[in-house]
Design brief:
It is a single chain. The chain is mainly α. Helix content is 73%, strand content 4%. Helix 3 runs antiparallel to helix 8, helix 6 packs antiparallel against helix 7 and helix 8 packs antiparallel against helix 9. It is globular.
């Protein structure tokens, strides 16, 4: 088949699920409404100039971010896994600079190798190697710096490196491994939009309702009402959209769909609070400045660090991920699962 003939078929597969089309349309609609609302505030002179500038910067960042987030998912399995791998390396870079781990060149090199290896296992669709890399990589990190004969600071530098690998390598790579399932596109699009809604709902409910702070020393702006509002909104969205994604499968159960939604919301908020704890501990506001209005890449994608593995293992336990698809695509030339 020629390239010209293959392209439409590829796009037909990419947009083959109604949920995929619905999520993309809703995303475009939200951006358009946000632009109209901010434009109205600007024309009416409402709010301070600093606030209006902040809103335009945030909107501009989303206009750039969303194609970079959604594009690889639509493009295909390999693009998705490559994007997840790149995201892990970029998050590691911000983390290294913020925590000082960048000074430990050997350990950083081992963590980078671990991130590349676990994403290679996802690309190869080699689940056994994928899960084995967790303890193996941690073991290598634990002994890597011993030959340098520098026992001073061993616990700190090793702990920082293990934490980095577990989050940006092993944890985040679960998002990429989901792409080995033929129906991954609507699921990943749902996860990406749901973690975004989780943040927006927490902020909006917190501002509208107010009340006691959730963890004032960790994240002064978060409230209990915001956390509960996000829990309700995100759970409802995931359960509703998930009923279309998982129709006819063992996941098509109200209890399991609600559980999936609760996991996305709780793990997403926990990831955000985890990063806030890191930033408060080292005394910084943002992990970077690459995204105007958002901070760093890690500030924007921290929720996925815990959502990815939690969702993956629930789905793998209930319905299996990539079952019936060829495995070891690179190392063994593609072997069918039983």
């Amino acid at each position: 088949m020629s390239g010209a003939a293959a392209a439409p078929a590829g796009w037909a597969v990419a947009f083959g699920h109604s949920v995929t089309i619905g999520i993309l349309a809703a995303t475009a609609g939200v951006l358009a409404l946000a632009a109209a609302a901010i434009g109205g505030l600007t024309l009416a002179g409402r709010g301070t100039p600093a606030l209006r500038r902040e809103l335009w910067l945030r909107l501009g960042s989303w206009v750039v971010l969303l194609p970079l987030m959604l594009g690889p998912v639509l493009a295909g399995r390999e693009w998705t896994i490559a994007a997840v791998c790149l995201l892990g390396l970029l998050c590691l870079r911000e983390y290294d600079r913020a925590t000082g781990l960048f000074r430990e060149h050997l350990l950083v090199g081992v963590v980078v190798a671990g991130i590349l290896a676990v994403n290679f296992a996802a690309l190869d669709h080699w689940y056994g190697f994928f899960v084995a890399l967790w303890p193996l990589s941690v073991g290598v990190i634990a002994v890597a710096s011993i030959p340098l004969d520098r026992p001073q600071g061993y616990i700190q530098r090793t702990a920082l490196a293990i934490f980095a690998y577990m989050l940006f390598g092993a944890g985040l790579a679960h998002v990429g491994f989901l792409a080995n399932d033929p129906g991954y596109r609507p699921l990943l699009l749902l996860l990406l939009t749901a973690v975004g809604l989780n943040d927006v709902a927490a902020f909006t409910c917190g501002k509208l309702i107010g009340g006691p702070k959730l963890l004032p020393a960790t994240s002064p702006n978060k409230t209990i009402s915001g956390a509960l509002g996000a829990l309700v909104c995100t759970t409802a969205l995931v359960a509703f959209v998930g009923s279309y994604i998982f129709a006819g499968t063992p996941m098509d159960s109200l209890a399991l769909l609600v559980l999936l939604g609760l996991i996305v919301s709780v793990a997403g908020q926990a990831g955000d609070l985890m990063l806030s704890s890191i930033k408060r501990d080292i005394g910084i506001k943002d992990m970077g400045v690459v995204l105007p209005g958002h901070g760093g890449i890690l500030d924007r994608f921290n929720s996925l660090l815990l959502v990815g593995p939690a969702v993956f293992h629930l789905l793998h336990y209930v319905i299996g991920v990539g079952m019936g698809q060829p495995v070891r695509l690179i190392t063994a030339g593609g072997v069918m699962l039983p």
